[in-house]
Amino acid sequence: MIWKILVLILFVAIAVGVGVYARRSTSSVDGFVLGGRNVGPWLSAFAYGTSYFSAVIFVGYAGQFGYRYGLSATWAGIGNAILGSLLAWWVLGPRAREMTHRLGATTMPEFFGKRFNSQALRIAAAAIIFVFLIPYTASVYNGLSRLIVIAFGINVPYEYCIVFMALVTCIYVVLGGYMATVMNDFIQGCVMLVGIAAVIIAVLNGYGGFSEAVISLSQIQAEGTAMQGAYTTFFRPDLFNLLGVVVLTSLGTWGLPQMVQKFYAIKSGPAVKQGAIISTVFAFIIAGGSYFLGGFGRLAIENPAAAQFIEYNPTTGAIVYDSIMPALVSNIPDILLGVLVVMVLSASMSTLSSLVLTSSSTLTLDLIKGNVVKDMSEKSQIAWMRVLLIVFIALSAAIGIIQVQGSLPFIAQLMGISWGALAGAFLGPFLWGLYSGRISKAAVWVSFIVGVGLTTGNMISGFVGTPWIASPINAGALAMLLSIVIVPVVSLFTPAVPFEINPPSAKGAGDLAFEAATAGQEISAKTGGKGIEGAAADEIAIPPSQRNS
């Protein structure tokens, strides 16, 4: 127990210390929200990855879909790495960096407002972000609390875990803003990389090693099929619904404001290419490892020591998916259990800090500034953002506590609702807004309405009767795909907002340096080695009567 407490104290001290150190970069709005748009590839890539993967992935999704699909759930991790990380950086990164810098846009709603010349779109986007980021933050809290309870004892109330995490996150984000977040993300990302590898090895060794664990898993009969070993194949069971998970958790990052914000802040030039590779490797290890480990979740039910931590719905008797991963890892060595708690705490706090920073900056810059408070100085904007950071963290913690005590949907459903609504509304307008100058305001409005309407309508219909789409995950995935199709189609029949697209150069740093050197040599040759300024000075020194006509 003492080792786990010491590791936790060290982790908290480092996080708060980074916040104090990064405070010097918060003198301007651009510095507080985007780190001055000068963040390097390693910090940006780790910030992207740690914001992407939290307790929602490790506890919620890896537990639920690993239990349902077995080892084939690993496809979700592969999709997260390729579609959610690599392609997102390649397709969105360079253009998002160039266009938001050119427009002077700090937030996604500000991008929509300036790109489509519409204050109404900006306000609507800000409202959607504020409303639908709340359930995601609540799910982050709940997933972490289950692991802390197992690591530190059943007598630790969930509420204490939530308040602890909220307080630490609040301190370092309020102090250091975006730079404190990305610096902590890098440290926390290193912990995650080491932690996931160690935990996978320890868990599988606890079940007799990899081969023995696979043999034990193959002997469990899958529901709805007579196939033997369905949970050990990468293509069974229920591949169609697994595809919905891959689309939601991978394509969704393309339209989530807290994710694409990392592209606004990164340095120009080759930093995006470097960040893409780093982020992809990170995702392969963290997401792939989490879903792979979750594929062995059914073994926890067969193990009496682990089964005591499995929870069941008191009304229906169905298994509570969010309890599977904590139960699966409950028998690893004490020191590794402490490392695991710090690993998931790292992922959850980085996600939470990104969410609340996005929400507070959006409310301040897109709703309050110019609408509620007409003349707001830069110092006042930062003060408003800090106050709203505290308010939003407190609000999300309160909802997290209510979710634990009440009967709100579990982690995966909450994530499905928030990701589906946000990405379903924003993905199409953001993607096409970067690539086409012929997109209309009407197309953006239709995407907002369909994305929010489909996901929330499906949720409400499920509460009052039968949902339109049985799985909220599939509903969210459908909303994203519709957004990509709707925007260009509607723009064909409605007037476009004229805009000049300036694609950033695809050349690397070496190419640009070579061109600059070559251009310098040509100028030097033409001016006799004096350069442009030297030749101009000579020209000025020559009397007008002696100059060539």
In short:
This protein is an all-alpha fold.
Number of strands: 0
* Structural class by secondary-structure content: mainly alpha
Count of domains: 2
Strand content is under 5%
Mean pLDDT across all residues, rounded? 82
- End-to-end separation in angstroms reads 89 Å
Q: CATH first level of the largest domain: which class?
A: Mainly Alpha
Q: Summarize the main sheet.
A: none
Low-confidence stretches: 508-514
Radius of gyration: 25 Å
So, CATH architecture of the largest domain? Answer: Up-down Bundle
CATH topology of the largest domain: Sodium/glucose cotransporter
Give structural notes.
The radius of gyration is 25 Å and the shape is globular. The chain is mainly alpha-helical. Mean pLDDT is 82; it is low at 508-514. The chain starts with a helix and ends in an 8-residue tail after the last helix. Helix content is 74%, strand content 0%. The longest helix is centred in the N-terminal third of the chain and has 49 residues, at 158-206. It contains 22 helices and no strands. The protein has 2 domains: 2-23 and 34-493, Up-down Bundle (Sodium/glucose cotransporter), CATH 1.20.1730.10; 509-546, no CATH class.
